[in-house]
Design a protein that fits this description.
heterodimer; A: 314 residues; mainly alpha; 14 helices; B: alpha+beta
Chain lengths: 314, 528
């Protein structure tokens, strides 16, 4: 228990440190938000007016604590460029991103682990080579290429699924699922190989152990050896890589979101970075960091639970 | 033969013959598809618009930071959606004339300093209120307020007083301006109840569609406004939708897959591929937009007119036009005006001349390299164009060093700051507007640092001149001056390239902006 509490406390500290980094990072972007809002039409007077209005003249540390205080009370501030409440506009976007990540994960995680198990069972045979080869190929292609290939065949040529995935509030579930079919497939293909290869490697690693040999000598079938003896002991690294990929599904999907015109967090972030809309960039950055850290904490905790040796340190 | 085709096209318009059959028979008669298509659409226009359906556009140029406030509209999506829900005081028609909208009549005093707008009766806002002279006056007031962030502020500053009385709005200008009605067609000047002073982003005006969905950066939707005052001319589809698709490949795929009926900004390099897709029509037409290289006339070494002339002669315009724009554009002549402007006059075309360039370069006394900054965001293909420029200049013995700048921050850090860079201008509706925005000594956007009191005087004189022949001559003289002494290298004007899907009818090419000057969704219809 103490160990888990420690992990969580560490995570929170880390998040705080990241908030400082994010804030510092947004300060060194070239140009400022006033300049970006006015764009080509900026004149010295209008720039000065807008800076005053946006509070850009305060020193950086004052603005940092002001911002942190807001975040802690659930107030992410208002977007500078559009004047909209950030929390409200992020809510829908975050939900969309999670929705897509959820369905991609539902397909990708079991598939990756099962394929990994199969690959180990038939290791070095043609089944193993086929699975590994295909998975590696799908990972090696850049995301945009996979996306465009899917669009070309499924949307343009056969017209089975829509090529653009604009989802909106109140969209019927069936339509929504149809809309995300292609981006979810693209994401699945992107993360599949990493998880599959890691599963395979972790189990193979355990397969070298003496107790696996014992199990084999007992005369257990190959699948039972893997299922009962090797897999439970390889679970920690597998969970790690699964969590890493889940995090990627949420924070790393900018390209896929752009290609499929999916209204998620990635597109939202990109828009606001180009506008130098600092409060939004900070808020999104912090949410991404929180997602990453919590998934890692979950992975750690799961590893602790799965491995008695970590629970009872000498 | 043509009789037969005409007959057939009328049958298609009446719904008695399918489009595909028609194209088949036209081909049998030896008629090329584009011509047959154009015949068809004119027949469809003659048969009249079809009401109903949902018209969808997939457009580049929308961000989640967009707002419905007309003052803040800058990119293509708010512009095109604004034309669906917003109603203007006056509008430019496709043939370059002025078309009165909310203003029924516009008149000026003889000195072009006092202008009277007579407001049309019976135009209704979406909230049921009738449009009054006060609303129009308030709209103009909001956009001419020094503190406003309106994109129209630059032009509106010239208005001294705005008064509404009865059915009329009277404007007095600080200086005479014969072009005022053209300025009023600026797309920011959407008439709103009380000028939008209380809620500028409420999205309420008197246009053909009522705003139903507004998700900036994702999609915008409108429903036909039942009480639109010009219901026979606009608002044919029951619903319109704008889907923001910033990725060029996704945009074309959406059109091919039939998810949208029209798209904007087709890249020149893929036009020929798209043309082959059945049912898709490329809608390309000339406009005032131009791709440029700008030199600061007050910064060494560009403060030497011989060097500027050498660089102007060292660019191979025709090669650039064919390689960068694939022919979807026209040659530029180092002044920012082309035939899409009402008072345009031809001036002898400047050509690539390495020998002459060499001569002027020697005369300038400059040697060593010239640093040109470029970036992909300056205009599509800007980096390739810069490299072509570098090569053609090398043949004239001029060394151009290219510096590729990051796209992020290009408009803040490079454009209008560095002495020599690639850039883009969208053009304006009149020559006065174009010259006032970028060539007057006092202009904020004088990105070539062209500061000539004699030129300023000519701009002001032309602005106040009501005699069209005299004005034309004045603009001709100004163009020659910019061309021969300015800091602008203008190799090419780009075309707008839009594309529509199989069922879209009622398209009319409009030289002022892309997508029929933004009216494509409001004016087109879906075939039954």
């Amino acid at each position: 228990m103490k160990l888990i509490a420690q992990r969580i406390a560490l995570g929170i500290l880390l998040l705080l440190a990241i908030s400082v980094l994010i804030f510092a990072g947004t300060q060194i972007l070239p140009g400022d938000v006033a300049q970006a809002i006015l764009g080509q039409s900026a004149t010295p007077e209008s720039l000065a007016n807008l800076r005053e209005q946006l509070g850009l003249n305060d020193p950086a540390y004052v603005r940092y604590f002001h911002w942190l205080g807001g975040v802690l009370t659930g107030n992410l501030g208002t977007a500078m460029s559009s004047g909209q409440d950030i929390a409200t506009s992020i809510k829908g976007r975050l939900w969309n991103t999670l929705f897509l990540a959820f369905w991609a994960a539902i397909v990708a995680v079991p598939l990756a682990i099962i394929l990994g198990l199969i690959a180990v069972r038939y290791r070095n045979g043609w089944v193993d080579k086929l699975i590994s080869g295909l998975a590696l190929a799908s990972t090696s292609f850049p995301e945009f290429f996979i996306g465009y290939v899917l669009v070309y065949f499924f949307a343009v040529k056969w017209q089975i699924f829509p090529g653009i995935s604009t989802v909106y509030d109140g969209m019927p579930f069936g339509e929504r699922m149809q809309a995300i079919a292609l981006p979810a497939t693209a994401l699945t293909l992107v993360v599949l190989a990493h998880m599959m290869r890691m599963t395979r490697a972790a189990i193979l690693n355990v397969m070298q152990s003496a107790y696996v040999e014992t199990a084999e000598l007992k005369g257990l079938s190959a699948f039972n050896v893997i299922r009962k003896h090797a897999f439970p002991n390889a679970i920690a690294p597998i969970i790690n890589v699964v969590m890493l990929n889940l995090a990627y599904l949420i924070v790393g999907v900018v390209v896929v979101e752009v290609i499929f015109v999916y209204p998620g967090m990635g597109q939202y972030l990109v828009d606001h970075v180009t506008k130098r809309d600092v409060p939004v960039v900070q808020a999104v950055g912090l949410i991404f960091a929180a997602v990453y850290i919590s998934l890692n904490i979950i992975a750690d905790i799961a590893a602790i639970i799965a491995n008695p040796r970590l629970r009872h340190p000498k | 033969m043509s009789n037969e085709l005409e007959f057939l096209s009328r049958r298609v318009a009446a719904g008695k013959l399918s489009r595909r059959d028609f194209l088949g028979r036209a081909a049998a008669l030896g008629i090329a598809a584009p011509f047959a298509n154009s015949l068809l659409s004119s027949a469809a226009r003659a048969a009249g618009p079809v009401k109903g359906g949902t018209l969808k556009a997939g457009l580049v140029g929308g961000e989640s930071t967009n707002s419905l406030d007309p003052a803040l509209m800058m990119t293509q999506v708010p512009f095109a959606f604004g034309k669906c829900w917003g109603e203007m005081i006056v509008e430019l028609s496709p043939d370059g004339k002025l078309e009165n909208r909310i203003a029924e009549e516009i008149g000026s005093s003889d000195d072009a300093k006092t202008w009277t707008l007579k407001i049309r009766d019976g135009v209704e806002f979406h909230n049921g209120k009738t449009v009054t002279a006060e609303d129009v006056a308030a709209t103009l007031e909001r956009h001419s307020d020094e503190k406003s962030k309106s994109g129209a502020l630059g032009y509106m500053k010239g208005i001294a007083t705005i008064k509404a009385s009865g059915k009329e709005v009277v404007l007095t200008l600080k200086e005479a301006n014969a072009d005022l009605p053209y300025l009023l067609s600026d797309y920011h000047l959407i008439v709103q109840p009380n000028g939008g002073k209380e809620k500028p982003d409420a999205g309420i005006s008197a246009g053909p569609y009522v705003v139903k969905t507004n998700e900036p950066g994702v999609r915008h939707g409108g429903e036909r406004f039942a009480n639109y005052w010009q219901g026979d001319k606009m608002g044919h589809a029951d619903q319109i939708e704008v889907i923001v698709i910033n990725d060029a490949t996704a945009r074309t795929a959406a059109l091919q897959g039939g998810q949208v009926n029209m798209i904007n900004r087709v890249e020149p390099k893929i036009v020929d591929l798209i043309k082959r897709v059945p049912g898709v029509t490329i809608r390309n037409h000339a406009g005032p937009g131009h791709y440029v290289f700008i030199m600061h006339c007050n910064t060494a070494p560009f403060d030497n007119n011989d060097l500027r002339m050498a660089l102007k002669l060292a660019i191979d315009r025709e090669e650039m036009l064919t390689k960068v724009l694939r022919g979807y554009g026209s040659l530029g002549n180092d002044f920012p005006i082309n035939s899409s402007y009402p008072l345009f006059t031809e001036i002898e075309q400047r050509k690539y001349d390495p020998d002459k360039a060499k001569f002027h370069y020697k005369k300038s006394g400059h040697d060593g390299t010239v640093l040109l900054r470029t970036s992909d965001v300056a205009f599509p293909g800007a980096v390739d164009a810069s490299q072509l420029f570098q090569q053609s200049a090398a043949k004239a013995g001029i060394k151009i060093e290219l510096k590729r700048e990051p796209g992020d921050g290009y408009w803040n850090e490079v454009w209008n700051k560095q002495p020599f860079c690639a850039s883009y201008w969208g053009g304006r509706s009149t020559q006065d507007q174009m010259y006032s925005t970028a060539y007057l000594s006092t202009a904020d956007w004088n990105d070539t640092r062209f500061k000539r009191p004699d030129f300023d005087k000519m701009v002001l004189a032309a602005r106040a001149e009501l005699d069209e022949a005299k004005r034309k001559q004045m603009y001709h003289d100004m163009a020659v001056m910019v061309r021969d002494e300015g800091g602008l290298i203008l190799p090419m004007f780009n075309q707008f390239i839009d594309a529509t899907g199989a069922k879209v009818d009622g398209w009319v090419d409009d030289p002022h902006q892309e997508l029929m000057n933004g009216y494509a969704l409001a004016k087109c219809w879906l075939q039954a």
